Amino acid sequence: xxxxxxxxxxxxxPLGCRLEVEEEDAQIVAVRGxxxxxxxxxxxQEHTDPRRMVTTTVAITNGRWARLPVxxxxxxxxxHERAVYAALRSVVMRAPIRLGxxxxxxxxxxxxxxVATRDMSEGDGV
Amino acid sequence: xxxxxxxxxxxxxxxxxxxxxxxxxxxxxxxSEAGAAHVLIxxxxxxxxxxLQQCIHQGFxxxxxxxxxxxxxxxxxxxxxxxxxxxDIITDTFVDVARSDKTLKLMSAHEGVRVISAGAxxxxxxxxxxxxxxxRLPGTRPSGIYTAGVAQRxxxxxxxxxxxxxxxxxxxxxxxxxxxxxxxEGVEVVGVYxxxxxxxxxxxxxxxxxxxxxxxxxxxxxxxxxxGRDRLESVTVAPVDDQRVPIMAQAAQxxxxxxxxxxxxxxxxxxxxxxxLRMDTVTGGPLVSSTMETSQxxxxxxxxxxHIHDLVDFVTQESLLAGHSAGDSLFGRRPPVDNVRMxxxxxxxxxxxxxxxxxxxxTVYLRVRxxxxxxxxxxxxxxxxxxxxxxxxxxxTVRLTPRFLxxxxxxxxxxxxxxxxxxRGDEEAA
Lengths: 126, 430
Known about the structure:
By secondary structure, chain A is of the alpha+beta class.
């Protein structure tokens, strides 16, 4: 029987509890270190299915600014986070753009769209 | 598409708001809701929205909208309301002087130099970032040293990178967020250095910006010198003792071409100074009453130009109040004069607003000197509330109701935040 303990820093509040998740043979047997229910839930979520929102920018031509801010419509599994960023590096949009316009649909097959987070009118890009 | 083209500029407005960031937009909406017919927002940027436009990350709006938005989304929601209220915005325009008679001298790319007058003025000028001079950082004067917000604008709006290998000084949220932004854009981030023994940003940002990207955080460590002639070549970092004095025997030189300073914000005070407003030496902003009126009649102030807020949602709340008050003043609707002065006491650095009245409810914002676990905030003899914790980096927000205030005869009300005797762990959260 193998036992492992993984530690997490709770992100719920400034207390920053040091959370521990203990596993035996890939089964969670204990969660420790939390001082509220949210901490316990976070430890389990972060241990079993960590997710992150992606917020970044993509290039835009003919826009008021050189970059267009974008986000994923939902959090993506953490292990795919870097790949989503990488996929957005080569995207070039063209103004005008409206908030919510889809920049990349179903990115990397994750079932999540990447959308613009602002209107971008036409301009000289600087 | 939200338009922020300058409208025809009138000679006379009911309310003029200086600054089109979150504070200015909310103040203008507040004034309009209070009945001001002609409201103008002036901004020196090319578009409204303020710093929100470069804060592309999530974390805005949980309190005000009940959902997490990015900065540009938060800005656009307010811009839509500004437009719906028929509020004028003029961009590319700088307020040179605001005078006590509520005239303002503007310099505008479209209008030239103009003087306009207002029934009431709201200062919503926001904050500046502290620079190298604020911490007297010794060394040469090469290029490559930026405040974090300037680098954020480079990366998120202008599409250029500040350098290739960066050191970040300061672990406030903007320092942490820029660490991740730079790492994602291919800049090597050597580390984040923090002079205090604890990080200054949210734990969420410690995890999502540093841990996720394997960026080290060095606590009780600071940058003590910069090197390089034309371009930054390296910085010297050193741990500090408990008096925050660098221990030079343990100093190390770190090669880098970029240093980001994320060392705090200070209210932008030029217009307030020109008006000779009474100022708070701790917050750096003007003294304000419970209606967000400054020491001069009809001149109101709100947002980071008054004191630095943790959350834009609180800026919005405070600025709606300032705008409503400014609008109400036009019609002679003024609440009873404040009869309570707020006096920061034990472990309280500052309190905004600086005065309140006993006849109605108020929200007050306080900053503490040092962290305390399981403590209590006490307002004179009239009200005490248990707090689970306080941290210097987090504002303490307290709502004071007439139920308690009615017990107070008026005058100076001292505020203390004290440890609790025999505290248990199950009290309400801060």
